[in-house]
Amino acid sequence: MLNFGEDQSLDDLEFYELRYSGKGQLFKRFRAFYLGAVFNILIMASVCLAGIKIGGALLGLSPVETLLISCAITVIYSSIGGLRGIIITDFFQFILAMVATFGLLMKLFLCHKFRD
Asked: pTM of the full predicted structure?
C-alpha cells in the first residue's frame, strides 16, 4: 500500500485533512485558497491580455473576437486530442520555440557588429 510521506496518510483526502487541520488552520486555508484561486485567475488574465494585444496588433481583431476565437480553438483542440495530444503538441511547440530562439540568437551574433 502506498503512503503519502511521513504522516502515513493513505489517500489524498486524508492527506488534505491532516494538512489543513490543527494549529494555524485558518491561515493555511486562506493561503491555499489564495494560491489556488486568486493567483491562477491573475495568471490566466495576464495570458488573455497578452493574447488580446497580439491578436489586435497582428490580426486587427477586437478583444472579444480574439478571446472567442482562442477559446473555440482551445476547446476543439483539447476535445479532439485529449491530454496525450496536448502533451505531445506542447513538446513540439517547446522544441520549435527553442529552435527559433537559438536561430534569432545566431542571427544576432552573425549580423551584428560588436564593438571592442
From this structure: 0.51
The rounded distance, in Å, linking the Cα atoms of 35 and 29 is 10
With beta carbons less than 8 A apart as the criterion, state whether 100 and 90 touch.
no
**Angle formed at CA 65 by CA 62 and CA 67, multiple of 5 degrees:** 110
- Is-contact 19 31, C-beta < 8 A? no
User: pLDDT tens across 19-30, in order?
Assistant: 777 777 888 778
Write out pLDDT tens, residues 49-65.
998 998 899 999 999 99
Residue 101 phi, psi dihedral angles, 5° rounding: -65, -50
Q: Cβ contacts of residue 48 below 8 Å, gap of 6+?
A: 67
Please name the amino acid found at residue 61: L
Query: Which residue, chain included where needed, has cell 502515513?
Result: 8
